[in-house]
# Entry
Amino acid sequence: MLIRVGSRGSRLALTQAELASARLRAPGIEIALVPITTAGDRDRTKPFGEIGARGVFVKELEEALLDHRIDIAVHSAKDMTSTDTEGLRVGAYLAREDPRDALCGAEAILPGMRVGTASARRTAQLLALEPSLSIEPLRGNVETRLRKRGERGLDAVVLAACGLDRLGLAREIGHRFDPEELLPEAGQGALALQVREGDAHLVAAADHEETRMRVEAERAVVAAVGGGCLAPLGAYHDGITLTGLIAAEDGSWIERLTGDDPTALGMELADASRRHT
# Structure
């Protein structure tokens, strides 16, 4: 049986697709990796919100699934929209790796530093930690952003720790932010295996129950805030406590709330945001 696994074409994405494929291989099963270029890959200059909000690294992979050009799509769970696309579902989440954000190029945030990131969520929380920071937009794959730090004379860049770990680049990390400092993106650190409805059996053996519980709760928080909301959002379940965050991009206000019900928590965050606007 041949299973076609779709992935973005970056080194990190293909590394992640191979991690997923290793969990799926079994006697009688052959895996073929199918690289697919997404809107987020084609345009590496505009902020994500100008390209198409959330899901800019997902849409083309989902279309390939719906068109039966691939059988499984491997996503960084943080790149997915907060609700499932009609006809598709996440059939499995691999066991979550480090969900934290990582500071590369320095061991701590200091006043006046120039820091590169394209994430509104990271920008808001960094400025709340240290308002004197100069945040500079920085896009591209992991290796490109690390290289641009030196080329542009930035003091540091902020990336997902899990991506650096998967690429064998943990040596680049000077500091891993505790979620109390920078709350992660919903799903950060987890890989999602997306399939067509009715095909969950293809990936069921790879599903990690604890990761599914945590990531689905985080996605539900974002969904309750509003899937099209472009305000900086974060959500993280540590296995005990579910925390959600919404903020102004300039860090002038941040609402960080906890709760047991993801939908209620998301609605509370949305209400808190409205109070600031």
User: Anything to note?
Assistant: The chain has a mean pLDDT of 92. The longest strand covers residues 2-7. The radius of gyration is 18 Å.
